[in-house]
Amino acid sequence: MVSRSKTIRYLLKMGFLSSRSPAVTALLWLAAFVVLSVHAADPEEIRDFAPPPTGTTLDGNYFTSTRLRNINVNNKGALANVTAINVNVFPALSGLGVSNALLVYPPGSVNVPHTHPRGTETLFIIEGTLEVGLIDTTAPLPMLFTQTLHKDDIFVFPRGLVHFQINKSKQAVRAYASFSSTNPGLVSLPRTLFGVNIDIDVLTKSFEVPPYVIKTLSAQQP
């Protein structure tokens, strides 16, 4: 196993971390070394589709979702607006192994580092320019891959890998995500580590930062 100190020196050399910012270092260290569990894919469907509940009329309405009509978007928020279309809100997807989401990124907003433990994501840019990042953990050292996406570009985020997006432009960005699971799951790294009241000693020792860094990060979580 590669030592923590060697990895940090490597990330600093590559410009991925800032030695002057303990908070940023802690967050990106988490992104690089989050433990990812292996999850089984959606079970194979032995029917053409899952029928609606008994007593419900089977017609075109069952296969239609209108959730993306007239959605309320916060155009000034610091975080991306995500409207998910998964099996929880669209039962017709049950057993089909797919789901979707519409993402709207106000200027300067970010979709925080996160993973989808049960599904691969492809992101299609409807309009605007978006910066994206993906961390690969298969190499001896974590590798960060970044890209600038433009209208009509597609980027893939393999299942379980940490990724993020940020809109650095002055215009809103709209994108459409497709997943290889009816419910791909969402693990937000900031919220998972700093929003559930983990013992502060665990976090300060794990990230080798002073307590005030953990308290600052925890205070930002909902």
Automatic annotation (TrEMBL):
UniProt xrefs under CDD domains: cupin_OxOx
GO molecular function, one term: manganese ion binding
Cellular location(s): Secreted, Extracellular space, Apoplast
Record carries keyword Nucleotide-binding: no
GO CC annotation terms, alphabetical: apoplast
InterPro entries: Cupin_1, Germin, RmlC-like_jellyroll, RmlC_Cupin_sf
Domain Cupin type-1: 71-215
The entry's keywords: Apoplast, Manganese, Metal-binding, Secreted
Annotated residues for binding of Mn(2+): 114, 116, 121, 163
Main location: secreted
Entry superkingdom: Eukaryota
The protein, known as: Germin-like protein
Organism: Riccia sorocarpa
